[in-house]
Sequence to fold (373 residues):
Amino acid sequence: MKRKAGKASVYFVDMRANMESGVIDRLKKAMKKAGLLKIAGEGDLVAVKMHFGEKGSTAYIRTPYVGAVVEELKASGCRPFLTDTNTLYVGSRSDSVRHVRTAIENGFAYASVGAPVIIADGLKGGNHEVVHIKGKHFTEVRIASDIARADTMVVLTHFKGHEFTGFGGAIKNLGMGCGSRAGKLAMHSDVRPEVSRDSCIGCAKCIGWCPAGAIRLKRKKAYIDPDMCIGCAECIVVCPESAIKIQWGWSTSQLQEKMAEYAVGAAKTKTRKTAFINFVMDVSPQCDCYPFSDAPIVPNVGILLSLDPVAIDKASVDLINKQPGIKGSALNARRKAKVDKLRNLYPDVDWNIQIEHARSLGLGTTEYSLVKA
Ligand code: SF4
Ligand code: SF4
Fold:
């Protein structure tokens, strides 16, 4: 996995367009320039790793971009399929039947994107391959079978903020997104929220949402049984009183490091046959796992392409931080972190941990050249 020293190339398609040159055409050209088509051989089964968006979310990658990527892969003789893994929490993507239905309802039907949807970890998220790595937390990781078995992978990521990891980018899509249910559980094992009895109003919304049945009312206030909690963190967002808190700092650092180790494992299943496209647009504060999408925090930046997941995420953060913050969005004008938009959103989450850990494990480099495509 160790890569040679030196800068990674990150290709950049901005959002400007006219009659002669549209963003989709430039995305297709950039795929060639960035070498994304060279990693796949004739007849390769190519996993196009996606996040189809929870039902009700609206910020996920728009289907014409996905269709364009599929078209280019097919034109170069590959057999692409769109894929993701089932979620840990109960929602519209927690088993393959619900997941495929949600993907189609969100626009990812064959007729729109030109490729079938295959959920990579099976009907209930139990299908995985064990991959051996040398990490700080793991010596083996559980990668969804149909991702591990695909010949090539192109990771399409909607880049956005994330309440647990600061941002959700290529490393998260590769790590958390390629882990089977057992893998996701292992990554979340340090996440244990607690309820503030002072803030809780006993409305029980969290109880109905919790996938593990770990919450009950105790003297009219919510109580989380730490032995039953699986650490999915969904209750934090569901609570209308912000009464559920996580041990920020330590637990989010562990999560980020574990996620980076899963990314190393997923990449190891296809050495030099994985490419990344980050869509830095509709940059919402939270991930697309919720049944809503909050207003973007910065104007649309564009599309980044690279063979290096660390470099592409670092470049995405840097470009976001060069943008003006959008007034009226979730950015907090009173917070000190005005330049670092992600730190402004989540002051207790150091997003750089995932980047540094992935870099230290040889997944990529933070040194990059931005090439206008
Ligand atoms: S208590 Fe919260 S974090 Fe734990 S399983 Fe339930 S919803 Fe997930
Ligand atoms: S959702 Fe929040 S306020 Fe309602 S019971 Fe749960 S912790 Fe308490």
